[in-house]
Amino acid sequence: MKKPYQKPTILKLQVGFLREKKSSLSRMVRQEIDGVPVAELVEKFGSPLFVFSEKRLREQFRYLKRLFEGHYPRVEFSWSYKTNYLDAICRIFHQEGATAEVVSNFEYEKARRLGVPGDQIVFNGPYKPKEILRQAVLEGARINVDSLDEILDLEEIARETGEKLRIGLRVNMDTGIYPRWDRFGFNLESGEVLNVARRIAAGGKLEVVGLHCHQGTFILEPEAYGRAAEKLVDLSQKLENDFGWTIEYLDLGGGFPSRNRLKGLYLPPEVAVPPLSEYAEKIARALLTRLPAGDYPLLILETGRALVDEAGFLITTVRALKRLPDGRRAYILDAGVNLLFTAFWYHFRVEVEREIPGPPEPCVLYGPLCMNIDVVEESALLPPLARGTRLVLSPVGAYNVTQWMQFITYRPRVVLVTEKGNVEVIREAETLEDIVRREKIPEHLK
Amino acid sequence: MKELRPIINSVLNSYSGILFLARPAAGLAILLFSVLISPNLGLSALVCVSSAYLFARILGLKEDFLRLDFYIYNPLLVGLSIGYFFKIDPLSLLFLVLMGIFTFLLTYGLSSAFWYYFRLPVLSLPFVVGSLIAALASYRYSNLFVKSLYKFPTFSYFSLPLWLEGFLRSLGAIFFMPQVMVGLGLFLVILFSSRIMALLSVLGYATGTMIAYFFTGSFQEAFSNLNHFNFILIALALGGVFLIPSPKSYLMALVASAIAVPLTEASQVFWEKFGLPAFALPFNLTTLLVLYALGLSGYRKLTLYYRGTPEKTLDHYLTLEKRFPARTWEVDLPVSGRWLVWQGPDGKFTHKGPWRYAIDFVITDEAGRTYAGEGLRLEDYYAYHKPVFSPVTGRVVEVVDSLPDEPPGSANKDYPWGNHVIIYDPRGFYAVLAHLSPGTLKVKKGDWVVKGALIGLCGSSGYSPEPHLHLHLQSGPEIGSPTLPFVFSAYLKNGEFHDFSLPAEGETVEPAPPERRLKQTLNFLLGQEFEYDFFKNEEFKERFILRVEMAPDGTFYFTEGKGKLYFAQRGSAFYFLNFEGPRTSPLRYFFLAAPKIPLLLKEGLSWEDYLPLEVSLGPLKKGLYLFILSFWPSFLKFKARYQALNRFDFKGEITFNDEKIKTTVRLAPGKGFTEIKIEKVNENLSFRRRTNHEQESSL
Fold this sequence. Notes:
By secondary structure, chain A is α/β, with parallel strands linked by helices.
């Protein structure tokens, strides 16, 4: 067979690569997702296309559950809705035993609509409209209070219902992480938490039964969780002693990283991101050494990204080729930052649907928007791609299908590759009708 | 008069105690028989037993202690035997007093020794010794008025079949009154108290005597041998008293009655040489021998706590002992998360012989593998470096922390246990955790650890082809002492709550740590009161107040005035232990609806429990059921299944043969039960707590 023509290039010889069974190049090829060929997916469901793997979702959940429960006897995973609140995805996690962590009336209603009972919902967030707060109270949700005004709201609801309400306090603290997320909840070091606790006790309408803290997002320092756990245990013991409350749960929030390559980090995620087992160990060790043996509060973890990110793929197609003035190659994809909000934080793994001959060279991946910011990847190392080549971007499971925009173009289909290998549409592509349905034209403009 | 009652009761109990009944009324009946039919006999016995009792009081022994009837039924029997031979006069009275005191001391001493060395009851062995001594001594005491030298009138009975007469006379012979009327009276007393015993007495007598008939060839001789009362006692003791009544205990009773035949004959021949009666020696020897052998062989259904009749013992066994096995120690699961029982007791690899009661744990994934990746590194194994917790509260007596973790696939044959911790539990045993990872132990020798305290991390040291945790209880402080059986106080298996049991090999378990809120919700304190409205078919019936009170033995109970409902928090669950009281007491519905509440309710969690018969049966029906159950243990399926609806609600379904009862319970997050509903075929009952916010807010 005649070999296709290749442009002559000079390549640096890298000995290490040769010794590997798989060269780094062939590793950048993805022909299928959970056994379903990429080409088939695109043919059937179009491009761009979000693909989620049920197998990976369940496996990752079970892995995390096994991991944390192996270290601490009472753990509850509360699926962080904002990460990805597609019904099908939530259902999978609820089936696996996760409760729901919601931060708004919309998310609360979505969880209830999915059949999650109120007492299996953790209600966070800085603004909980009073109506939904009342509903959550009546339905027995775990409410983590963010501000003093919310406490006043809750006291009013307590007066209405005539019963003492059990609430959680959201606490922010110094765990050595920068930037500190100190706008949420009450500060620990300044003594604000204790002041608030005194106020709550004096009010006599509420009882604190839980403590919550969320240090930030994509936290790469497992020890920070250990410190947070220690501080929460100390605080809970102080509250129990001073006010006679029983702290039933400690909620360490989320922020656990996925194996995604954060911008600004030089090292690949396999090296830079500590394994989740280290987080589990640090948290459990802090709790087990500080708590009286056998008397364990529930540990709630609001994992989102760590569960879903690596189960999500975006298939996109090269729609046009370009050469930039500086000589770099550039490709126009049919998916841009409108669909990939996390492109602002991550360098995705870019895989090509088939092995393409030719040396890899740096190139830029642009999205379809006529906006300068629409850059999916500033410098990918790819062999020369022909128009119509499909790329698979990952991990894209977290935050994208919630923060995506209907901007300039339609949002595509989302499919789920089931455990049996079937492909199910879990969100249909948007149509013009979807977008204009809510619009109204005033009489004089008709 | 009130102070006299316990004394009278315990004297009367000593009469009924000879027949293994703890019923003063039965005792009174027997006392009256003895005094009416043979005043000489009856009064002698009374004198002997009273002197023993008084002496015990002088020793300072309390009523509670003397309620154990065998302490004074032995002097009673000796009194009967003396009364049988000698006429009452001042001299024989003195003799009675002396022998009463002697027999009491003998009983006191022997029972303690028997229990200490053999874990056996003393039965009527002191009586055998005491009456032999009395008989022997009286050879020299010519001043005693020997009754048998002087004819006393005997009634001639209306004609009864020989076998019946033989049985009744043998029954009477237990009390030295081998007369048909006495036997009939005693049989009625037995029948009235316990149908199981009545049956056993007939079966035991028939088996033994028929075999004696085969050997001797004389029907007449076999059925008129009064020593055959031994068969009756053996059948009673083994069939219904010291073993839990069951087909097996009945079989044991029959076999023992049969093997006692030659023994009875032999001892009769032997003692006749000395001109002495054989007394109850065959009964004592046979029963003790069988009991000792059963104890050694680990027979599971030995009676631990005899409740007065075999029926009551069976009921107690079916409920309490089935719910809380008392023969094995319970410990906590020493791990967190889901672990697979890789090798259980009597396992296929190493849990053999004296080390058979042990468990090896590993962690597996959904595919059943114990490791991720290729399993070449220790870190690949899920169990590796997972925390290990103390299963007991006690003192650390040994710590080995320096052996290396063996790489997967290899094992250290020189130090098979690897790094281990031995903890002495004050209940009297040692708990061993083995194959820990070096340098991870958080305890040192001499430390006091509580249940659930972090001990170290799971490793692969010692004879450990892959990281796993080994747990056993042993009798001695050195590693490798013989192991002891144990159960876990609570664990979850496939979403089901299990307690006081052991998972089987290949099953996956996880600990069931109690939730802090529920622990408080169901922590009832002395003097707390809860007011309930009782509705029947939605119609208000009555209002009652539940009060928490404490029994003398330290257990707590609810009472509304009529019944008592005992409860306790044990391990990870709240239990209703026992219900006492009339059937009209609403408390039994509380028992029905919530015999056990795991302190970690959560949607979908389910559990099972056994219910005592009295919570749904009247006394007559209950007796009948127990009688049938003793033959046919699976006759009655009185199981209850419960399932949590959420953190504070659960429902139950009780299947009682064909009848189905549905229950729902709502707990108050603050304290106690908010509402209990019982749905029967034809009626709906509900108990609603009257809200009192004062109590809630004062918490």
